[in-house]
Structure formats: structure tokens, C-alpha cells
Amino acid sequence: MCADQIPQPQTTRRRAIGIFLGGGLLASLASFLYPVLRFLVPPPVVDLGGDEVIAAKIGDLKPNSGEIFRFGSRPGLLILQSDGAYRALSATCTHLGCTVQYRPDLREIWCPCHNGIYNLNGGNVSGPPPRPLDVFDVHLRGDEIVVSRKREA
Ligand code: FES
Known about the structure:
By secondary structure, this protein is an alpha+beta fold. It has one helix and ten strands, in the order H-E-E-E-E-E-E-E-E-E-E.
């Protein structure tokens, strides 16, 4: 057997170091690229499940305030405007799915994750959200505030 064919300890060590460095470089690239891709590509629209829910009772909300309620498996946002009108929207931000909240000082809907802002009709005002929020119907039934999906026309 020739000495050239026997693996030298120095060669195998160099190869192992190369594999570790290459793996580390790949892991670093993945850890940088994945959040960037998640930021740029929003998740698909998720079905809310359930058509109707009692979101609150009359008197639960003060004028110019909002409250999160559960609509199927997702959160909804019920808002009582200063003029006494109720509004209900999906509380799932269309950007990366954070839960939005009503900002009484702005009288708008705000996503704290990346400072996305929607108006009370769910429309995009500023920030990264790519689509408006889903808007729901609100009905009063006795002292209950009932929220349901908008019916297709
Ligand atoms: S998740 Fe990014 S703005 Fe809402």
C-alpha cells in the first residue's frame, strides 16, 4: 500500500473544519433570509370558521373603544365609535397575522408588530399590510351584539 492512499490526519481535520464552516455559513444565510421572506410574503387568507358569534353585550364597551372577541378560531375586533355605531372587523393583520387593536387616540386600527394602520372600514392607511381587514356585519339582538360574516351579494 502506498503512503498517498492512506488518509492523513491533517487532511481529514481540514475537511471536517471545511464542513463545519460551510454548514455554519448555510445556517447563517438561512437565518437571515427566512425572516426577510416571511416579511415579504404574507400568509394566505385563513377561513375564520363559524358564521355568527355574540361579540359582547350592550354596555360592555365605552364609546370610542374596541374589544377583541373570538370569531371561530380567529380574533375579531368590535369597536364602538363615538357616535354610538358599532363596527366589527377581523383582528388578524393581513401582513403577518398579528392581532390588531383599536387606537382611540388615532380613531384607527393599529397593528403593533410593524406599525400597520387601517381605517375603520378596514382599509389600509399606512404600513406594510398588503390587504384590507375583513369587515363583518353587526346586529343587535336584545342586549347582545351579534357579529356575522358579510353575505355575498
Ligand atoms: S403583522 Fe406586520 S403590520 Fe401587522
